[in-house]
Amino acid sequence: MNLRSIGFRLTVWYFVSLCIIFLLFGIGSKLAMQRSAFHVVDGELQAELDAVTHFLKTEARGLTAADLEDELSELSQGGVSVAVSDQTGRWVYRSSLFVSNRLEIPKNPDLQRHTVKGARDRIRIASTRVVSDGTFYTVTAAYSMHEFNRSIEHFESVLLISMPVALFLASLGGYLFSRRALNPVNRIILGAQSISLRNLSARLAVPRTGDELQRLSETINQMLERIERSVQQIHQFTADASHELRAPLTLMRTAAEFSLRRERSREELADALSKILRESERMSRLIDSLLLLARTDAGVDDVHWEHLNLAGPVQEAAEQARVLAQAREIDYEILLPAEPVPVSGDPDALRRVVFILIDNAIKYTPSGGAVSVKLSQRNGHAAVAVEDTGIGIAEKDIARVFDRFWRADKVRSRSEGGVGLGLSIAETITRLHRGAIELSSKPGRGSIFTVVLPGDERN
Q1: Domain final position from 111, 132, 151
Q2: What is the pLDDT of residue 309?
Q3: In this predicted structure, what is the pLDDT of residue 365?
Q4: Are β-strands 331-335 and 370-378 bridged in parallel, bridged antiparallel, or unpaired?
Q5: Is the confidence at residue 37, as pLDDT, over 90?
Q6: Calpha distance 286→245 (Å, rounded)
Q7: Which of 44, 68, 204, 261 is least enclosed, having the fewest CB within 10 Å?
Q8: Helix (H) or strand (E) holding 125
Q9: Are 347 and 312 in contact (CB under 8 A)?
Q10: 143 and 93 assigned to the same domain
């Protein structure tokens, strides 16, 4: 038996709880029995006191001491014993119960009913004073609690014998029931232990019980789904990153090996070095992008917060991309509002987001097309819309545009130096700024990417 198991601990708590309940039950039952016995006896005592008092007031006049004793003895034939003493402290009459237990005359007859310890038994006593024919009498009624005490002692004996047996049986039953109730937990443990990276698609069997165990199994399965999805993303990310890094490395190695095979002219060496430099720059951009995404995935917030007018970063990014639009003979338009657009964020990071969206729009817009950048405010938020008349995005691909290393046109993106991380980085930076990127696109008619950021009322 595992003393640290939940089943054992539940049994111990169950045992302790039952001990406390049985103890309180026994004490409460004993007190209730005593109170009930006192209530019955006190009623008998009061009735006897009333009878003797009535007799002394109405019928005791003129009776001799012997006659008075005889009459009182007849009144004391029931279970209640009676004793009468006069004002001098002399016993007028007393029953055998008073004699055998050596009971004395109460010093305070007006004392409420109480229990005294006699020579043999515990006695319940009630007394009162009465005046008859000018004489003061003290009337005392007594009742032996022997039978009641025996009943209570018998009840205690039954409890002392039955309670341990009941505790043992209840605890044993509780232990067996707890083991049976926790069997699904053991199955969950065995199922969870059997799942590893090799079989992340496996799931736990869900008991259809509608209780916490079903919720636990479903929660673990949901966690496994998230882990599997994350591991798949890591594998895909690693494979894509390796593929993207392999291409420039291969070109750089090929250029270097080709240059070293024989003597080359200055122009040939310069061309080879240019290829190596170009691919090195491409690798540097890729590594920087991968580091940014890795830091974000790790929960590192590199945002340098400050209050700013979003028009500044938007204009800088738009002017920086203007030369790209001119090189492709694209109609380019920048629309900025006259009033400030206050936000809170990192100006360099926001500039990068806008530039990525503009650069992406220019890449997928053919010569003669149009790209526009518009900054506005709506419902307390800042909105930067980048609209193009390019190739657009198919509806089935809209959900994937922000995936890492995904490209709408793989041939064109690769030929222009793209690695498929731009939109993913833009979405990550925007999310760090508590914003979102909205996308609307139609194939052959262009796309609209809109960055929505919360406004800054303090600016």
Answers
A1: 151
A2: 93
A3: 92
A4: parallel
A5: no
A6: 8
A7: 261
A8: strand 122-132
A9: yes
A10: yes
